[in-house]
Amino acid sequence: MMSTRIARREMLRCLGAAGLGALWPWGEARADEEKAPNKLLGVRRGGDHPPATLSGGKVIQPQRELAVLRTTQVLVVGGGPAGVAAAIAARRAGADVTLAERYGHFGGLWTGGLVLLVMAMHGRDKAQVTRGIGEEMLQRLEKLDMGVINRKPGVLPTVDAEALKFVMAEMVREAGVNVYLHSWCADAVKEGNAVRGAVFESKSGRQAI
Question: Is 139 helix (H, G, I), strand (E, B) or coil?
Fold first, then answer.
């Protein structure tokens, strides 16, 4: 049987050559697989569902019921500029709104990707043509020191990413939107041909809204 001991230098070499998978003692794994083809790949973490199994070289996840994290009238997946504006607008219209975002902040590439220019605000004659919730965000940024610069007709304003994260979070909170951060959308929930919700992955596991 192959030894599972490995020197630090050898470990670093393996990591650099082929990633973490190269560390697995393949001969031992193959022998174990032949003895137990349904070898468990995971462990339960407080749930009552069976873990995935390895069978015939394929990973099989048994069917199981998902916990429903929340029911809502409007579910917005993604807290970028469009998602935040949609969630706020729907809440102001009186709907119960839930916003799920995969990162720990709002803004998407506008904030997290440092794409700081605000585009498509003015027409060819330099007249402002885009307003609404986006305009509200810029007006709030103007009240913060260096929250936005170059705010004048015909010029693309530049925002401060951290200030914008704050403003968006403040507006979402004031509107009364239900928020779930660090939640990755993994699948749709369908009833017939209609989409009724979404499945999310987070530190709490897989749940549905």
Answer: helix
